[in-house]
Write a structure and sequence with these properties.
By secondary structure, the chain is α+β, with helices and mostly antiparallel strands. The protein has six domains: 57 residues, Alpha-Beta Plaits, CATH 3.30.70.100; 122 residues; 88 residues, Calcium-transporting ATPase, cytoplasmic transduction domain A (Distorted Sandwich); 142 residues, no CATH class; 129 residues, 3-Layer(aba) Sandwich (Rossmann fold), CATH 3.40.50.1000; 107 residues, 3-Layer(aba) Sandwich (Calcium-transporting ATPase, cytoplasmic domain N), CATH 3.40.1110.10.
């Protein structure tokens, strides 16, 4: 058996995915198929002799388009095609709408203006309707095609004197333009699918300097083999996972571990592909290449987590499967009743048929979600909250737990000097800055940043790998580093341990043969982090923190932020598993993160919230992005999302309520009382339902954030 993944375009509701799945399963040689509407992907299990071209053809017969997974341009092309049709439909629909208020407008002119909209810009509705009818199913495209066709054909008959009545060219054209606008916005958002994975892969260098026969040769990373020894220069990314065989350096592994402090690497230590080398040169022997590397595994986790998300099944899509066929049946049944049983005229029966289809045309239904999302996301953007669409809104309405990453999310993401303790009458911080002036180590940079201003040059400087530095100034030796380098007594050590118990890194200063001070450095908590946690707790959310940092540091930061539940020393793959474990326990999780190592967890959670100061990958994977980097916006974002979701549900209710109330009247149910909804009133009713939906959404403009 073989498994093939296809990218699909043209799906616009959950019923589309169900219909396509059924069509694929009927294909000879196919044993199983799963279509995910959220990711626009189809995974097909089939016999070895079945080629992907046959699967693509089967998708085409079902009325959609498919390409081999990995064709990143697919959705961009779809948005371009829809845009072309929209550029035809929108101006002509606007002109027709304006001319509908001009009684003297020639009907033939209106027909000429409506033709391109109906049969060129709207051709996709006809092709998909034909495909749906061949499958024996019906979706929104069927109702759009039938409703606009009924209005157009009825108007054409009136234009040529075959019937007496009003013209509805403008109604048909405006409906098509509105639906195309929604499809264009959807296709634009789909074109971003896969950006997160692409940016993850961009972290891996394209080439590596492999050492062979004493020479360095540039080799594409995909040609690296296990056992190859390659050179990593200062500031470069490590080409693939491996073991250091020569050299010393500090490597920034925050992308995979979450550790804010660079890790010291020497002979025998493991390094991860994609991490950034510090100031030293390294020689590394490759241990894992290609799809086996940690970076490749993170990519796979993101893809799997995104694919595992439930398809977006908004109420409109769920009801459409019943609503569309029901409307068609009612329209035919009502006109047949009046023509055959009530012996009404053909004009009357046709009027009933057109009225039912026009009043039921899903203009308000199509606007219910997009307009609310448009206003809600626009309001969010005003306050630095970027909501990516309906998926995030729906998820925000369900979550009960908020999990924060530590490094760069709850904390600032860079080391800062927090404490300076002198054990002698000296300026310990200044001595440390002089000794560290020529060092590129992040801890040295934190010390220099704390001092500020000009720092004298040492007379001599020497870096001691993994321990610290030695320098000479004013005839005295200055030693700055760890306990291994600076000898301290019990008193000094006790002070250092007290600081370390708070999750801080300590640096000792020695001068004149004795320990003269200790400096504490830490990744400090962000302003308002504690306020953000308190606000979430007040709203009834459970709050937790997850990090790759050590238990002691994690506990110290969590206590400062007011978080009780802590998961420390967790690797990227385990972060995603921890979120999955919470979900299995019945929790609905929102994950807040900013780094590459957070991407799998952001994708796995019901709602991913990424900080705007974070990596592009985190922002692409998150359903909500906080531009201002203010953690209080987590609560604001959830509030706005839930408010928007409530408006969507209200809009859907009103859209369906108008249809349910108006369809029987349009069918002639109240004709015995002298009440009949003719096509003109049907169009007005449909327009009124659309206006009410838009008006309800515009009420959201008054929303204000709590913080």
């Amino acid at each position: 058996m073989k498994k093939t993944t296809l990218r699909v375009t043209g799906m616009h509701c959950a019923s589309c995915a169900v219909n396509l799945e059924k069509a694929l399963k009927k294909t000879p040689g196919v044993t199983g198929a799963s279509v995910n509407f959220a990711t626009q992907k189809a995974t097909v299990e089939h016999a070895e002799h079945v080629h992907s071209a046959e699967l693509v053809a089967a998708v085409g017969k079902a009325g959609y388009s498919a390409f081999e997974a990995g064709a990143a341009h697919v959705h961009a092309e779809e948005s371009t095609e829809v845009k072309k049709d929209l550029l035809v439909a929108a101006p002509l629909a606007l002109l027709l709408f304006a001319l509908s208020f001009v009684p003297s407008a020639p009907p033939l002119l209106l027909l000429v203006l409506a033709l391109p909209v109906q049969f060129w810009a709207g051709r996709r509705f006809y092709s998909r309707t034909w495909a749906a009818l061949r499958r024996g199913s019906a979706d929104m495209d069927v109702l759009v095609a039938m409703g606009t066709s009924a209005a157009f054909l009825y108007s054409t008959a009136v234009t040529f004197g075959l019937l007496k009545g009003s013209l509805y060219y403008d109604g048909a054209a405006v409906i098509i333009a509105f639906i195309l606008l929604g499809r264009y916005l959807e296709a634009r958002s789909r074109s971003l699918t896969g950006e997160a994975v692409r940016k993850l892969m961009d972290l891996q260098p394209k080439n590596a300097l492999v050492l062979r026969n004493g020479r360095s040769i540039q080799v594409p990373v995909e040609l690296l083999k296990v056992g190859d020894v390659f050179l990593v220069k200062p500031g470069e990314r490590v080409a693939t996972d491996g073991i250091v065989v020569f050299g010393n350096s500090a490597v920034d592994e925050s992308m995979v571990t979450g550790e804010s402090m660079p890790a010291e690497k020497r002979k025998g230590d493991a390094v991860v592909g994609g991490t950034v080398n510090g100031s030293g040169a390294l020689r590394v022997r490759a241990t894992r290449v290609g799809s086996e590397t940690m970076l490749a595994q993170i990519v796979k986790l993101v893809e799997d987590a995104q694919a595992a998300k439930a398809p977006v099944q908004l109420l409109a899509d769920k009801v459409a499967a019943v609503f569309v066929p029901a409307v068609i049946v009612i329209a035919f049944a009502a006109s047949a009743y009046w023509l055959l049983l009530a012996h009404a005229s053909f004009d009357f029966a046709l009027t009933v048929f057109v009225s039912v289809l026009i009043v039921a045309c899903p203009c308000a239904l199509g606007l219910a979600m997009p307009v609310a999302v448009l206003v809600g996301t626009g309001k969010g953007a005003e306050h630095g909250i970027l909501i990516k669409g309906g998926d995030a809104l729906e998820a925000a309405g369900k979550i009960d737990t908020v999990v924060f990453d530590k490094t760069g999310t709850l904390t600032k993401g860079k080391p800062e000097v927090t404490d300076v303790v002198a054990f002698a009458k000296v300026d310990a911080l200044r001595l440390a800055a002089i000794a560290e002036k020529n060092s590129e180590h992040p801890l040295a940079q934190a010390i220099l940043a704390k001092v500020g201003g000009r720092v004298p040059d040492p007379a001599a400087f020497k870096s001691v790998a993994g321990k610290g530095v030695r320098a000479r100034y004013a005839g005295k030796e200055i030693i700055v580093g760890s306990r291994k380098l600076v000898k301290c007594g019990a008193k000094e050590d006790a002070v250092a341990k007290r600081l370390e118990a708070q999750g801080k890194t300590t640096v000792f200063i020695g001068s004149g043969g004795k320990c003269v001070g200790v400096i504490a450095i830490a990744d400090t908590i962000k302003p308002h982090a504690a306020d953000a946690v308190a606000a979430l707790k007040r709203k009834g959310f459970k709050v937790a923190m997850i990090t790759g940092d050590n238990e002691r540091t994690a506990r110290a930061i969590a206590a400062e932020a007011g978080i009780d539940q802590v998961m420390a020393e967790v690797l990227p793959a385990e972060k995603e598993r921890e979120v999955a474990r919470m979900q299995k326990g019945g929790r609905r999780v929102a994950f807040v993160g900013d780094g590459v190592n957070d991407a799998p967890a952001l994708a796995r959670a019901e709602l991913g919230i990424a900080l705007g100061s974070g990596t592009d990958v985190a922002m692409e994977t998150g359903g909500i992005v906080l531009v201002r980097n203010d953690l209080r916006d987590v609560a604001n974002a959830i509030d706005l999302s839930r408010y928007t979701l409530r408006k969507i549900r209200e809009n859907l209710f009103w859209a369906f309520a108008y249809n349910i109330a108006a369809i029987p009247v349009a069918a002639g149910a109240l004709y015995s009382y002298g009440i009949l909804l003719d096509p003109m009133l049907a169009g007005a009713t449909m327009a009124f339902s659309s206006v009410s939906v838009v008006g309800n959404a515009l009420l959201m403009r008054g929303w204000k954030p709590e913080f």
